[in-house]
Amino acid sequence: MICATNVTLSYGKRILFKDVNIKFSPDNCYGLIGANGAGKSTFLKILSGDLEPDSGTVSVGPGERIAVLRQDHFAFDEEVVLNTVIMGHEKLYRIMAERDALYAKPDFSEEDGIKAGELETEFGEMNGYDADTEAAVLLNSLGIPEEMHLKKMRDLEGGDKVRVLLAQALFGNPDILLLDEPTNNLDIKSIAWLEEFLHRFENTVIVVSHDRHFMNQVCTHMADIDFGKISVYMGNYDFWYQASQLKLRQKQSDNKKVTERADELKAFIRRFSSNASKSKQATSRKKLLEKLTIEDMPVSSRKYPFISFKAERPCGKVILEVAGLTKTIDGEKVLDNVSFTVRNGDKIAFMGNNSLAKTTLFQILAGEMQPDSGTFSWGVTITHSYFPKEHSAYFTSNKTLVEWLLQFSPPTEGESFARAFLGRMLFSGDEAMKKVSVLSGGERVRCMLSRMMLSQSNVLILDEPTNHLDLESITSLNDSLLNFEEVILFTSHDHEFVNTVANRIIEITPGGVIDRLMTFDEYIESTEVAQTREALIRKAA
To answer: pLDDT band at residue 166, thresholds of 50, 70 and 90?
Structure first.
């Protein structure tokens, strides 16, 4: 159990939390949610003790241990992978290191022997003799094979480092587990394993994630940071969303009824206040009017951008023909004889472990790269717009946001049009005059989506569009693609996003392409698809 009592934190005049009182209990998983900048990661740091609040306290049960998913990917570069995981249990690792240092002494004394015996007892009580095995199992489950366990952390790729740090947080059955974006860089198999791990975990979990499906699978409660406070709801993310929207609509409805009643009373008073026979009734209604209060609607920190894709013209019968596309990059054949046909109404999610393969395919289809062999042809009615995963090149200029957007706007439009458009994408007032070179990752994504909306294309090509977006922006983008009636080709690691948008899945494997007309959930649950994948992998080997 972990409790926050009267916790307050502010930066200058901006108050993040004020007098927060909250208790997180064992055997529950709490999803910590809120808009970008609401203070989710900051609150986790307060709970972990990495950050002191302005006032208030954080307390844990006696003898309970907190484990944290660390975000510094370079902090353990000089450590061996296996040891990095065991370091998640600081006391155990300290005892292990002290014990090993004693045994390494050339002049091992009787006193050292007594001390070693005490350490051995404590080591055994903490299941230290199983530490290497437990660490290895965690690493294997998260996709870090045995041959990497004795490597130095500095020799690992960034994504693998994240997996090791996740294993570190999970190691040793901590009493309180704090996880900030734990599914980043995890594949579907690893995410499924983590979901199952957290289902079995009997202690307290507090997790920050932009993955709605993950939170729906693991969370028993939602802790919502908004209006300068934290409110706890029972249930998963979908239940919270429905309950919060219902609560908002109810408050709006109550206010509307009060306003309508006040208008009726005012009308009666105006009509009969000078009428002697009705003066008592008018006075009575004045007293009723004074008692009516309209509840203030607090301003939420949540903002939903207005995302809406409209095609200038519908697609014709011929959309896209791809035949035998092959491409080798830096000696690696990332595309090998890839063929498929896109049909009207297709919303295709491209899957596969090799993200470079999917990005390369999209770059070829968008005309940014040439294949080594093979052909592709777009239909004569088709206009396509491309959202690249790496888009920093679009934001190197010294242009303001208004100037940047006008490059992609109709030539007849000017600054007022750009400002209005940017306002709907959450760049209001002075923010519209920011230099594009200083934009955050999420702001850049919203700009790139604005560019695509202005193109009015009938085919959208989107490479990981949900990266860097908060939940509100992901929800808006998700809804806009559900309403788009033309063709979408996209990739994403967001399970909910893929499952709700895609009606067709194309998976690029080393041995060939798997192409199925079904939802993502149907695809990952299909035994036939799994058998086909295994056969293609064996063929490639």
So the answer is: very high
Directed axis angle between helix 110-125 and helix 90-103, to 10°? 150
Residues 468 and 524 grouped into a single domain: yes
203, 24 Cβ separation under 8 angstroms: no
> Do both 383 and 481 map to the same domain?
yes
Q: Are residues 380 and 457 in the same domain?
A: yes
Say whether both 152 and 94 belong to one domain.
Answer: yes
pLDDT in tens, 46-75: 999 999 999 999 999 898 999 999 877 788
Q: Is residue 245 packed enough to be buried (19+ CB in 10 Å), middle (13-18) or exposed (0-12)?
A: exposed
Buried b (16+ CB within 10 A) or exposed e, 425-445: bbbeeeebebebeebeebbbb
**Residue pLDDT, tens place only, 453-487:** 999 999 999 999 998 888 899 999 999 999 999 99
Is there a domain that residue 257 lies in?
A: yes
d(CA 491, CA 518): 16
Which residue in this structure is represented by tokens 């777009």? 378
* Euclidean distance between CA atoms 346 and 211, whole angstroms: 24
For every residue of 468-534, DSSP letters joined together read: T--HHHHHHHHHHHHH--SEEEEE-S-HHHHHHH-SEEEEEETTEEEEESS-HHHHHH-HHHHHHHH
Q: Return phi, psi of residue 73, to 5°.
A: -80, -5
Structure tokens at 271: 């009509």
pTM above 0.85, yes or no: no
* Full residue range of the structural domain in which residue 536 is found: 320-398+435-540
> What is the spatial distance between Cα 453 and Cα 367, in angstroms, rounded to a whole number?
19
The candidate with the shortest Cα–Cα distance to 438, out of 398, 386, 491, 483, is 398
Q: Are residues 334 and 280 in the same domain?
A: no
What does the H/E/C string look like for 338-403? EEEEECCCCEEEEECCCHHHHHHHHHHHCCCCCCCEEEEEECCCCCEEEECCCCHHHHCCCCEHHH
Indicate the number of domains in the chain: 3
> What is the pLDDT, as a whole number, of residue 68?
93
- CB–CB of 83/39 below 8 Å? no
Is 316 strand, coil or helix? coil
